[in-house]
Amino acid sequence: MEPILCTYADPDLDIQRPFDVAVVIPSLLRDQLAHAVRSIFQQDLEGTIQILIGIDAPQGSLEQFEKLLEKERPAHIAVTLFWPGYSTKQARGGMWRPWGGGSLRSLLSFLANARYVAYLDDDNWYSPDHLSSLLSVIKDKAWAFSRRWFVTEDGTSPIHEDIWESVGPENGVFKTNFGGFVDTNCYLIDKLQAYPSLALWSHTDPRFIINNQEHGEDRCVFDHLHKHHPNAGDTLKPTVSYCLNGEDLNADSRWQYVKDHELKTGLKRCKGWIARPAPKALNKPSKQKKTGSLHVIGSVTGPFEVSIVIPTLLRQSLLPTLRSVFCQDIKGALQVLIGIDQTNDEVQDWVAQIEKDCPDHIQIIIFNPGYSTSKRHGGVHPAFDGGALRTILSFLAQSPHVAYLDDDNQWHKDHLSRLKKAIGTKNYAYSLRQFIHPDGETPVCVDRWESVGPNKGFYTHKFNGFVDPNCLMIHAASCLLALPLWTKPLPDDKEAMSADRLVWRFLARFGTGISTEKATVDYVLNPKDPMHPLRTMYLGQRWLNGESVAFKKKSGLFFSKKR
Fold first, then answer.
1. Based on the domain organization, do 232 and 380 belong to the same domain?
2. What is the per-residue pLDDT across 261-289, written as a single tens digit (0 to 9) for each?
3. Who's near 148: CB < 8 A, 6+ residues apart?
4. What domain of life (predicted)?
């Protein structure tokens, strides 16, 4: 199956306008997925829904799934399908440990164009009032949950309502060890309040390594929500059907609980249980408009020495930026992840140009959701400089080490090799940077004032120092809770361009890092940057010298070598 990032929606449905709720489904594209998706199609919610399906390893037919969408998808629901061409799960060659989909739940949570995010495994299903009942109780809370039914493996008969496991904070058999528990399928999370918790879908609990399978991400998410947002909404209604299948490591203990407590099972004993939804064809086939795209350039496959994340508006400066990546002297394969913040009709032309220039040792993924994740362009994430793209692409990276580059800056050829040599077992490494005049080519001076590392420079007291994202390399898994911060600017930042300050403050407080002590980033000064007047004042004569050289070049008084 070819890599895909595509949203199926009616032509009249504006997918840039945030949906009322999103549902995230990690899947193998197996037959059971149809039941899960139908149960969302048949929700009684009066509002719009985005279903995001992330494929970990395709086992079924895309053609069959598209037929389901054509015949049954209602007009108020859009379906986003994502298969990157590789698994993000460590057991299948990816970088992330969770057995149930690697980093897909985290990635899709941030990709969702909705404030409220629910979750569903591809072998379970919702009752028709599941989403509406959750939305009715979440209100101003950070999260809410429903109850669930245990169902036989074939999905035809209820066993009993789960009254002992997924029953919320400070309840049930997990009260002593975990402070309670909520199953993944039962959540509704306000991601603008509880955004750090979403990263923990990519983290496992060492107490839940069973048969060499790493689990416990649901415990990690619950623990974080419970600690930081103790007041949750509870529908008190079982509106999830959870199948006890052969892959369920706890199936035997659950059957034993039923036996030990003499719980009555079967359809007659489980009033209110809703069976698997039957196919419900539309009066006429759905008008399917496909939006978004995923382009994979290059035949080299991971894991890679470094993954490079570049959010872009497809400005012309992207091409020289990429050339600076192509010229890196680091040994080994590289992965470049380009996230398009606002799509346009020129994407295919860009793909052709980039493909023409791409070296053999580099894989490039051009990630085009078809809508912006940034509030700047109508999305839900507050950061104006890329929305959630840096976060999403960090979870997609096929290297333990991730570096960041803006689409108007450039690296010196030894940038990555120096960072990779320096980072070792530390959480992050960083270089210095050289200020470049707004003309894009005239060097001004090395930045010895702002992006200089922990507890140094202008931001010492406010942010424990600072390192510009273009100078940074992180070990992504060990910096997990920093990744959601790319979506959040400072509360008082009217420009909404300061998420990098929060990322850095987290790294400085909780991580260990090291500097290469070399300025290997060319950072182009932007007169529109709120910091520009202060920078030029600090730089003083160095700025005036740069201005003079740039003016002489523009006037044709002398020529200089391009960077």
1. no
2. 999 999 989 999 999 999 998 887 777 89
3. 161, 162, 166, 183, 185, 186, 238, 239, 240, 241, 242
4. Bacteria
